[in-house]
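Rotation project, supervised by the postdoc (A.L.). Task for the rotation student: set up a whole-complex structure prediction and record inputs and outputs verbatim in this book. Inputs entered:
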Amino acid sequence: MLEGGAIAPEPLIRVDELTKHFPVTRGLLMARAAGQVKAVDGVSFTIDRQETLGLVGESGCGKTTTSRLVLRLERPTSGRVLLDGRDVHALEGDDLRDYRVKVQAVFQDPWSSLNPRLRVRDTIAEAMIVNRRVTRAQRIERVEEVLQQVGLPLDAGGRYPHEFSGGQRQRIALASALAARPELIILDEPVSALDVSIRAQIMNLLKDLQAQEKLAYLLVAHNLATVKYIAHRTAVMYLGRIVEYASTDLLYRNPLHPYTKALFSAALPADPDAPREDIVLSGEVPSPIDPPKGCHFHPRCPFVMEQCSRVEPILKDGGPGHRVACHLY
Amino acid sequence: MSAVVLDVRDLHTYLYTRWGVVRAVDGVSFTLREGETLGLVGESGSGKTMTALSLLRLLPEPAGRIVKGQILLDGEDLVPKTQREMRKVRARKISMILQDPQTSLNPVFTAGNQLIEALRTLHAEGRRGLWRRAEDALRRVRVAAPEQRMRDYPHQMSGGMKQRIVGAISLAAEPKMLVADEPTTALDATIQLQYLNLLKEIQERTRVAMLFITHDFGIVARMCERVAVMYAGRIVESGPVRELFRAPRHPYTQALMASVPRMDADVERLPSIDGQPPALHRLPAGCRFAPRCAYADDRCRTEYPATFLVGAAHEAACWRAEPSRPSR
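Outputs recorded:
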């Protein structure tokens, strides 16, 4: 973020009132609509250049759908995703190709995200084919460059994915995301499939690459400590909505939303003598097909008030740089 | 002190594969007392799940075999038992909860039917009596409206609910020993906390001994009295949770704990462990962690370290913990 009186430049990514509803059908042959899953239900955020935004929440909260909307793997029901001020879902032709160069992704499972029949160098080069300005010779050179950058030996290029361990495969996935020289990489649970001792290697690599390549990241993760380590700002999602949004520092020091507090208290510290402030939520996340009225969290909230079941709280300032959607504030 | 329920002595479980002999569990010993929880921590391939499967004698056959050692449950060795005898032991004395409730439950039977199947071996009763017992079992794992849940199929339930059903089946016979292999890894954070609290509550009531397999130090801190850290088929360090967390003595434990990001600390850069665990069919001579260890010397690379006492009931298998080592 900029200091002082400078005019803030347009963020790299601006997500504006994004919604994604999936139809739910009943019956096999005579399928009829039986409702809608509001997977993403009015989400807005920005990502600046060289910034990492963490998106946290439990399964079904819409964090992965949000990242897929940014990646253009889903079309939004309404709302927009702007890259450098341009709606990514309206891009065509050269502009679309340009977008595909600028935005790359690394997924959770390096066992299924790499094509087992392609040599590593071909997987990495494939990401560059979309860019017509890159020649074959340049591609070959770039493959060697990114292999080195992610800490893989040069001969790795001639081998197949099955010859590598999980951590190395995630390095390959990162190399192919890097190859096209993107501006944004979407990281969907990039370390959760890896062994504990390997995670730190990959997390450090992500930090190094961000600094070297001036990358922005959208980090989708459920592990709060991972997000704390990597993300500059963090948004907490619950049932399709952002309930709290602040700089990571601020959010982790002083969570405001009762759901964020419960989520944080469920992350058990590796210290048997840590003070226990359990906020054990009753029940489970309700179905997104028929979410509770008003605040989606009110049936499980320990601080529920009368208006919570009627009025949907909007994101408002809960302090400088700290947005929270809760009637308590 | 309460009675020892499980005493594992020098357990060796090997897998005979076409790539060679995989020494998955290679000399593991530990004990568990009534009402106690031992955490078994390690990365994938360290042998923790193979240790668990050995205890229940559920190894993948014919590849997996216990080649040496004893598993004394209530003083009775399980290793020489036939599978027919083991079925009885598993029905009454030792039980297991696996990571993924989806695969533990049979998708074509209702929760009630699966519970009754487990209860039938224990109680010579008619269907109505068993049905009532099954409802009680669900109530004990805090399932709301058990009468209705009994008729539900697994696909109609959430992950947390399914894992409660699995818990109800595993604990139906009030076994003395429960092996929980990453039981909450597939669950969401807030549901995980509910489930861990439930297991604790059941343990307080039934005094079941638990072997809790996990890679999460936070869960160990919350659930366990003692912890054992496995690396490449062996326990490299074990001790009371508080002491081991305060002052880990094995370099692997130290490095592993330091490499985990924490909620309660700001770290600019995590120290990471270079390299990866050795292949279990081509183990290095000497200490198995030596190739990744910052302190390894020639002796470490040639001679597997003995286990040294480094505190009250706190042991580490590392030459650096040797008491006679001259101080510098």
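Student's summary: Chain B touches chain A at residues 43-44, 158, 160-161, 188-194, 197, 215-222, 241-242, 245, 255-257, 259-264, 267, 269-274, 276-277 (CB under 8 Å).
Supervisor addendum: Chain B has a mean pLDDT of 92.
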